[in-house]
Structure formats: C-alpha cells, structure tokens
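HUMAN: Spend a minute on the protein record below and explain its fold to me.
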Amino acid sequence: MEFWPEFILIASVHLVAVASPGPDFAIVLRYAVRYGRNVALAASIGIGMAIFLHVCYSLLGLGLLIKTTPWLFTLFSVLAAAYLAHIGWQAIRSGAPTNKAPEVAAEPVTETPSMLKAFTSGFVTNGLNPKATLFFLSLFAVIISPVTPLSYKVIYGVYMACATAAWFAFLSVILTREKVRAFLLRKGYWFDRLMGAVLLALAMHLIYGAIQSQLH
C-alpha cells in the first residue's frame, strides 16, 4: 500500500517535468516538421530510453557525485551546451523551400537522418540535459524514500522511461497530422530556425550557469 502514494506523486511530478518545453521538445518538433513522423518517433524513443541512464546513475549514487563535484558538473554542462549549440546551428542554417511544384517543394531540403541517428540524437539530447540530472537527483534524494525497495525504484524508472517516450511519440503524431504538417512544411524552415535559436539560447544558458557555479 505504501507503493501507490509514492508512485502517484512521482508520476505527477514527472508529468509536469516532461511536459515542460526544453531541448527534448525542440528536437522532436524540429524532426517532426523537417523529416516526418517516423524520424520524430525514433527520436522520441531515444529520449525515453535515456531516462534509464538517469535512473541508473541515480541508483548508483553517481548523480550525487556529479552534483557535489563542481568541476564535474561544469564539464557535464559544457558538453551538453556544445551538443545543443551544434544541432541548433544546423537548424538555423536550414534553407527555404525551392520554387518548384508544391509537391516537390514540400520535401525536406536536407537528407533525412536514419532511424538510428534520430534515436541517438534523442538519447544524447536527454542524456546530456543537466536539468534532467538535477530532476532525477531531487527525485531520488527527496521524493523517493531511502527505504523504498530497489525493485520499486526500477519500476519507477521503467514507468518514467515509457511515459516519456509515449509523451513525445504523442507529440510526434500530432505534429505530423496531414493538415498540421502541411502548414508546418510551408513554414518549416522558420520553425527550424526558431528551434535552432531556442537550442542556442539553451546552450548559452548552460554555459552561463556553469560559469556562475565556478565563480561561486
């Protein structure tokens, strides 16, 4: 009986966290607009699977080590910022559709990434997200009781991974519905550039936070 109150609390907190806009949302939106449903779904699954990475290092106590070791957390933040800046710059460089026939102009102007590449991109984006690190650190340090059995913690992790993947898969389906995607494709390169700017802003925010933490 003690399992359900803790599980419901975790599920509620996780729902708020996963629905908040961030790098994961930016990646899924860009892929859905630019490359279509399958690529966005692959990235969504990658994002969900990265949850297991956070759960594993939290269970092993590595999350606390990262948080309490300033230089390590700074390094982690810089790596995340570099990755976000890289994909953000790629998005900003997206070109406008060509002046060909509508059905041709609607095609992506860049090579569609493979499912593996999209999966990896989603996995790395979530795995290198310092906010996710802090979220799971807080989750395992504050919300989940120290006496909670390991088997329950594993169940929590499986739930959060599946729920995260399901949420972004749902967004992928909505964003790639025929009418929605038709509109997004017409203005797709602007969405690409907008998401690129967001990712660059997130990268700069991470760098700023890393510098501030070192100064203090």
User: Anything to note?
Assistant: DSSP finds eleven helices and no strands in the chain.
